[in-house]
């Protein structure tokens, strides 16, 4: 399978095939399973700019809607992280008079809450109405739209140029990345910066984290692909900073061409990526082979536990669970339920695999023998919360093992 790159129009060849998949964050109600949306989850790399991307393009209106269930504030780790991001920006880019920050995909306002509290002029851009209302309830000004070049022009006309544009776990979700980058050029002031953080391709490859591929992740970025994309639209990559969050992310900083000098970290990370082959199809092909081994080992373990009469539950229902359960063919026969603390996901089912999602109280009352940790990037937080669990945890990243 081959298509054209969404960024540079170069040839893209599919290398990772995770089968036919539903939307990662759909979580339908049990009585609303008819007409589920499915698409081929195949991931490829551009020969020209090395951008890793989904071969299929799912319309953003299908992925993000008024009932979108993700709430960033539900995680104490995420809340602390974004408070730290806000305070860092307040110390660096948002000093002085009348500074202005725009956050793309502000969700429930977990980051902008600290900005608003500091009295700094701000605007959150959030297309999902329910989470936008949560942000507004925290005193945050929100524009209920998708971010693109037109939105950026309207914001600049109404609010003036931005000193900072920020996005977290959202820029890689936007298939029209070209319009986002054009919008950044339109909206930024002369010395403004576009700062965003996303799951990092190097971490995905290193950890065999194939479950980070799903419909919302139109791209998985690397330093080299972001630098190439930025250059196409009059921007420079001026800094890149590895982060531990989400199992391994990267924070990128872009500025208008010539406005800032790149830090030494950019050249160092580019050299490291070349050495690791993050710009080669063979690296993704090897990731595909390792994902197949995880699939086979996980299903074999779960079938063996079922044959032995052991009770297995799932813990955590991030979008990743949809990829794993559908790719591996895991349904409620192997995992009768998965618990999650997000109220908007409870009493629903995982798309495609139809595993029921229940509150954590069910897990504590049921006391299963084993629990598959689908929210593996929150392992420490979850294990501390469930310290009374006397069963054993099953993890599958980077390989299947019982803890």
TrEMBL record:
Pfam family, one: Methyltransf_13
Entry keyword annotation includes Membrane: no
Domain Methyltransferase putative zinc binding: 5-62
Top-level division of the source organism's lineage: Bacteria
Key words of the record: Methyltransferase, Transferase
InterPro entries on file: Methyltransf_Zn-bd_dom_put, Methyltransf_Zn-bd_dom_put_sf, MeTrfase_14, SAM-dependent_MTases_sf
Listed SUPFAM superfamilies: S-adenosyl-L-methionine-dependent methyltransferases
Gene Ontology BP annotations: methylation
C-methyltransferase domain segment(s): 245-398
A GO molecular-function descriptor: methyltransferase activity
Protein name: Methyltransferase
Organism: Planobispora takensis
Lineage: Bacteria, Bacillati, Actinomycetota, Actinomycetes, Streptosporangiales
